[in-house]
Design goal:
heterodimer, A: 246 residues, 2 domains, four-stranded antiparallel sheet, two-stranded antiparallel ribbon, 12 helices, 16% strand, B: 433 residues, alpha+beta, Topoisomerase I, Chain A, domain 3, four-stranded mixed sheet, three-stranded antiparallel sheet, 13 helices, 42% helix, globular
């Protein structure tokens, strides 16, 4: 088995100061042994865009790897975790690494990166990519979540996508969008009860109409339903107020 | 049970209606809310018929609504034949007896370009499309547009009713009249108003600030609003009724019954107001010579600010209107001169308003002439030309001696039909001229 000191050339000063021992036998580095338990070398490797070395794999903990990483030449899709900072500087404690991770952020500079073919690297479980990539991923996740909740129905001559969380119905055939308010009393709503149920749940939450209460008390009970006091919240939207009924 | 059945029979007989569900009618769906429902059945021509209840075996059946009977308050072949075509299919509008109807040979209910059933030339020279009632119902795009037209048609009655209530001597009537006016002219939602508290009402000189939005109003309405504030506790509901149980907040069901009675949907009333306002703003932007590419964003932003719609303003403005003003933006400026001078963004509530305002009237005229299906200006012009020709031929057949010798029907594209470009300007200009 390769000693970590052979791999992490940037740790050379530590190696010089002490006789060769396993990582967990160095008191100051013992915590890193626990951190790196189960981690693989590829979780410390990244692709660089350093001039002249574009596309090469580099490792955190090596002299040139650390240098290029800190200069911002690393793949922005490298998932950076707090322990990576300890690989770069093994003298950092866990606390210091956490603080540095939060304050310094991801060192990659997307403007120095032009290799879109390279995918995710680093620690995909515990780490996070550069914020620019994260936004892209969030958008992708949001789209996936939206696709998952979208209900598509055919009504008349058109196909319609209903997105309950947005309270909107989108016409696939013409790109028009309608608020659920407008369509909740339509043929489309009546003929697609599952869709209506999902949309109504959101609608009731947002607008807090008493439709459900009305349905639960049909007929004559409705005549006196208007006498029931209502609970209300007033929320501020921009410069104005909106009433939300609980 | 016997007496109930016999009274039902009496009512049905009184209206000359079938005494039970017509065996040719099949229950399809229910609309409505707050316990006020409409039950729609379909016959073998696929016409929809309004009933008072669902069949007993349906899960929509309302045990308190009695036996299902057909509603007399709808077009019937024997009472309103102008609503039915020769095949017995129900139209979306009544067609004038003198109209020279032409059928769409390519009619296809699955094609939004050819979903129109008939067309005729109106006295103004423009085509009026006639759709089947079932196509309007079953296609959300057309249904929403139709609702806009329905609300538009009901606006004068709505305002007269609100005015009558507000002028009434009973405080209860006044409250309901005021709420109807605020929903219409102040663009408040019913829910907002019914759950507003006294603390949500403020005054700045002659301006009323209700739920954080300003409006100005005439003196009688201002007096009424000040009477709501008085010395009441800030946490009290703003609109209350004196009941035997004391002062009670007005409920949604109660208010919904007013709207259902008038057949005006408060949501579509707001849709109508937003569309009308969008049209007004676009005309002003045209006068300011705002570049066409900035038009939509700026106009929507203003509508959103004025009506507090957030990012959803575009959903509350008629799609057809958006398309047409974009297409004809350059020819809109000329009609700005006759717009009212309401301060934009601050609504004006007038207690004596009983009809449409001038710019609303122009908008109203415009929407009723606009087709509801997908079409292009070129198709419109071609159809207008064909209708013009057919009209002249029909006139020539009626009065052959009035036609000078050698003068046959004019070829397509000449005479009554508009020149290229005129049609576009006319369809956009109608709104503001």
């Amino acid at each position: 088995m390769t000693s970590p000191f052979e791999m992490f050339s940037a740790w050379e000063p530590l190696l010089k100061a002490r006789p060769t021992k396993d990582l967990d036998q160095h008191q100051r580095l013992a915590h890193l042994g626990t951190k790196l338990q189960g981690k693989k070398a590829k979780q410390l490797s990244f692709t660089t865009s350093y001039p002249g070395q574009e596309g090469q794999k580099k490792y955190l903990g090596t002299v040139d790897g650390n240098q290029q990483f800190l200069l911002g030449y690393a793949n922005p899709k490298f998932h950076l975790a707090p322990y990576h900072w300890q690989i770069i500087d093994p003298s950092l404690s866990d606390e210091e690494a956490e603080k540095l991770h939060l304050s310094a952020g991801h060192p990659s500079k997307p403007e120095l990166w032009n290799n879109e073919d390279v995918g995710d690297e680093g620690d995909l479980e515990d780490g996070e990519p550069h914020v620019s990539v994260k936004e892209e991923y969030d958008a992708r996740d949001a789209k996936a979540a939206r696709d998952a909740e979208t209900v598509t129905v055919r009504c008349g001559a058109g196909l319609y996508d209903a997105v309950p969380s947005e309270g909107m119905i989108y016409g696939q055939h013409n790109g028009h969008r309608y608020k659920w308010d407008l369509l909740r009393n339509s043929f489309l709503a009546a003929k697609n009860p599952e869709l209506a149920e999902k949309m109504e749940a959101q609608y009731a939450m947002e607008k807090a109409l008493l439709r459900r209460r009305g349905e639960e008390t049909p007929g004559f009970e409705n005549v006196t339903a208007f006498m029931q006091p209502l609970q209300r919240d007033v929320v501020r939207v921009g410069d104005s107020l909106r009433v939300v009924v609980r | 049970m016997t007496s109930s059945a016999s009274s039902h029979d009496d009512v049905a007989k009184g209206f000359g209606l079938p005494e039970t569900i017509d065996p040719n009618h099949t229950y399809v769906y229910r609309t409505g809310e707050y316990g006020l429902y409409q039950y729609w059945y379909q016959d073998r021509f696929e016409n929809y018929w309004l009933y008072t209840n669902a069949p007993v075996d349906s899960e929509d059946y309302d045990q308190h609504a009695g036996e299902a009977m057909i509603s007399p308050d709808q077009p019937m072949p024997h009472t309103s034949p102008e609503f039915f075509n020769q095949d017995g299919q129900k139209r979306n509008v009544a067609v004038p007896a003198e109209a020279n109807l032409q059928e769409n040979g390519n009619y296809n209910p699955s094609d939004l370009r050819n979903i129109w059933k008939e067309v005729y030339q109106a006295p103004d020279g423009h085509p009026r499309y006639v759709y089947l009632d079932k196509d309007i119902r079953e296609n959300p795009d057309m249904w929403v547009q139709n609702q806009l037209r329905v609300v538009d048609a009901m606006v004068p009655k709505y305002r007269q009713f609100a005015n009558n209530l507000f002028q009434g001597s009973h405080p209860k009537d006044k409250v309901f009249g005021a709420i109807l006016m605020l929903v219409d002219q102040g663009c408040y939602s019913v829910e907002e108003l019914l759950h507003a508290e006294v603390s949500d009402l403020e005054f700045v000189d002659q301006t009323v600030v209700l739920l954080g939005r300003k409006f100005i109003c005439d003196l009688p309405f201002y007096d009424f609003m000040t009477s709501l504030k008085g010395t009441r506790e800030p946490s009290e509901p703003l609109f209350v009724l004196n009941t035997v149980y004391g002062k009670n907040q007005i409920g949604l069901n109660h208010m919904a019954s007013f709207f259902a009675g008038m057949r005006v949907s408060p949501v579509f009333l707001m849709y109508w107001n937003a569309s009308q306002m969008y049209s007004r703003i676009v005309h002003r932007l045209a006068a300011e010579q705002v570049p066409a590419e900035e038009l939509k964003e700026r106009a929507m932003q203003e509508v959103s600010l004025a009506m507090n719609l957030g990012e959803e303003a575009d959903c509350m403005v008629d799609i057809r209107l958006q398309d047409v003003v974009e297409q004809n933006y350059n020819s809109l400026g000329k009609s700005f001169a006759r717009l009212t001078s309401d301060p934009l963004g601050v609504f004006v509530v007038l207690s004596d308003l009983t009809s449409r305002k001038p710019d609303e009237l122009q908008f109203s005229m415009w929407i009723h002439t606009e087709p509801m299906h997908q079409t292009t200006p070129e198709e419109e012009m071609q159809l207008e030309a064909e209708l013009g020709q057919a009209h002249e031929e029909a006139e020539a057949e009626k009065n052959p001696e009035a036609q000078p010798e050698g003068m046959g029907p004019k070829p397509s594209g000449e005479g009554a039909s508009p020149a290229p470009g005129e049609g576009e300007a006319a369809s956009a200009g109608q709104e503001g001229e």
